[in-house]
């Protein structure tokens, strides 16, 4: 059985590997885990000995097939618990990440399968992220960044890349919530900021960073 810390490392490596076709660097993992590089190196050696990662000194790491299965299973549990907390216990989408971080380590396949069935086998979590199936397959989605919309194009807010409570609070204050249709009015060439309009005609000004973290579908 893997420790909570080992599982968190595997999940972090999986997340980072989605952003690059190359091996994940030790520095990237250190930054993601907010941990000293020396501590990261020690953990990588341990995960390598368990056959969960391929670790090449000075080059980086990649998940083995066993490591990927483990990481995806953790992600599945995390996202199912987020759905449960929001849909059944009335938590806000900005409250559930940290709680799900703890619940994801419960090691009971039977419990997770029953949770999935109880929730009606949801395909996406409260932040719009796809929930992998029991066999580890992710549902296809056609999300694009809000910042990529052309002037005059519209889309429905269907997910976010940043799950931090501060970002989600900010979106709620702007009433930029899942399911809301918005249209691109203007993009500032200088700093990448944008102006969007909601269905009620209200114009909303967003920075480049914010618009990059909002995912929309047509």
UniProtKB/TrEMBL annotation:
Keywords: DNA-binding, Transcription, Transcription regulation. Residues 1-64 form the HTH dtxR-type domain. Gene3D superfamilies: 2.30.30.90, Iron dependent repressor, metal binding and dimerisation domain, Winged helix-like DNA-binding domain superfamily/Winged helix DNA-binding domain. SUPFAM superfamilies: Iron-dependent repressor protein, dimerization domain (SSF47979), Winged helix' DNA-binding domain (SSF46785). PROSITE patterns: HTH_DTXR. One of its GO terms (molecular function) is protein dimerization activity. Belongs to the DtxR/MntR family. This is Transcriptional regulator MntR. It comes from Anseongella ginsenosidimutans.
């Amino acid at each position: 059985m893997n420790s909570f810390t080992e599982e968190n490392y595997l999940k972090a490596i999986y997340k980072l590997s989605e952003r690059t076709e190359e091996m994940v660097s030790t520095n990237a993992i250190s930054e993601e885990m907010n941990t000293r590089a020396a501590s990261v190196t020690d953990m990588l050696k341990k995960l390598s000995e368990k056959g969960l990662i391929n670790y090449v000194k000075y080059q980086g790491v990649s998940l083995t097939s066993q490591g990927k299965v483990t990481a995806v299973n953790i992600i599945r549990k995390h996202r199912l618990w987020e759905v449960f907390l929001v849909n059944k216990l009335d938590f806000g989408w900005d409250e559930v990440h940290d709680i799900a971080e703890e619940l994801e380590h419960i090691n009971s396949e039977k419990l997770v399968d029953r949770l999935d069935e109880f929730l009606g086998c949801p395909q996406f979590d409260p932040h719009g992220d796809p929930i992998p199936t029991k066999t580890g397959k992710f549902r296809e989605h056609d999300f694009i960044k809000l910042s990529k919309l052309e002037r005059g194009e519209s889309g429905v807010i269907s997910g976010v890349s940043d799950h931090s409570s501060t970002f989600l609070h900010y979106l709620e204050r702007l009433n930029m919530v899942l399911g809301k249709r918005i249209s691109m009015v203007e993009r500032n060439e200088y700093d990448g900021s944008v102006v969007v309009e909601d269905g009620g005609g209200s114009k909303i000004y967003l920075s480049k960073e914010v618009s990059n973290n909002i995912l929309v579908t047509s």
